[in-house]
Design goal:
The protein has twelve helices and no strands. By secondary structure, the chain is an all-alpha fold.
Length: 264
């Protein structure tokens, strides 16, 4: 078991057009993709929403880390597909829900891989969000990869002591994670207490007004992405309301497990 998959949500500074974009334009793009994936259940539309993200990954030069994230998400996508299919949903609908999940994971992976937590916090501050909330959110974003590294260290240490995570039935495997969760929770609590003490000693939020050294500014590419996102969102809402899309019908369906249960 490897937790390197969280690298797909970890920022790394690169000299690419996507990294140089304003975080607000990227955030609006992600929100647009998020909204459209929730609006539509059509397999073709969801596949298009996933495919339009691929050029951004190529421009961001982050394909390797993105692929690791998608590879890890494939396990949960498979569970989503199976749960939909065995509960009576059609094959097309089950595939749609799977592609929806992959598209959402991909979009958030692109955002966090190419957006510095500092820039993200600065963007939220300029959107007049209270600094305490901004600091809490950006700290949580920073801590996710750190906790993933801690978890991987604990897993490696317990494996070296003979712990076998992949053996046994489901309950046995769940119990195997207890020796990992306890030190991980203790480590997280200790880290949070150290952070709280450091903030208190430095007078966190003692000054009511904060001034930033850097001011974010929209560039031409940000206006282009913002315009395309708004057009895409408006077009998606219009199609959803007024344009009947051709439905993909795959004539494969299994009896719902609830129907089988009633049969007994």
């Amino acid at each position: 078991m490897s937790l390197r998959v969280f690298d797909g949500f970890k920022f790394k500074k690169l000299d690419t057009p996507i990294h140089k974009m304003d975080p607000r334009s990227k955030f609006i793009f992600i929100i647009g993709i998020f909204a459209l994936t929730l609006i539509f259940t059509d397999l073709t539309v969801l596949t298009i929403l996933f495919l339009i993200q691929l050029p951004l990954i190529f421009l961001a030069k982050s394909g390797k880390k993105w692929f690791k994230t998608i590879k890890a998400a494939a396990f949960f996508a498979f569970l989503i597909f199976i749960m939909n299919f065995i509960t009576g949903a059609s094959l097309a609908f089950s595939l749609s829900m799977t592609i929806r999940f992959i598209a959402l994971v991909s979009s958030f992976s692109i955002f966090f891989m190419t957006t510095s937590p500092d820039d993200l916090g600065l963007a939220l501050e300029q959107m007049k969000i209270p600094y305490t909330l901004v600091f809490t959110f950006t700290t949580a974003v920073r801590l996710v990869p750190t906790i993933a590294v801690d978890a991987q260290t604990v897993i490696d240490a317990q494996k070296s002591r003979g712990l076998e995570l992949e053996k046994g039935n489901l309950m046995k495997r769940i119990k195997n994670f207890i020796p990992i969760l306890i030190p991980l929770i203790i480590s997280a609590i200790r880290r949070s207490m150290e952070l709280a003490e450091a903030l208190e000693s430095r007078g966190f939020n003692a000054s009511g007004k904060r001034e930033s050294y850097i001011t974010l500014k929209f560039h031409r590419v940000d206006y282009v992405i913002l315009s395309l996102t708004l057009i895409l969102l408006a077009l998606g809402v219009y199609i959803k309301l007024y344009v009947p899309l051709p439905q993909i019908d795959i004539p494969i369906k299994v009896p719902s497990i609830f129907c089988v249960y009633k049969g007994f």
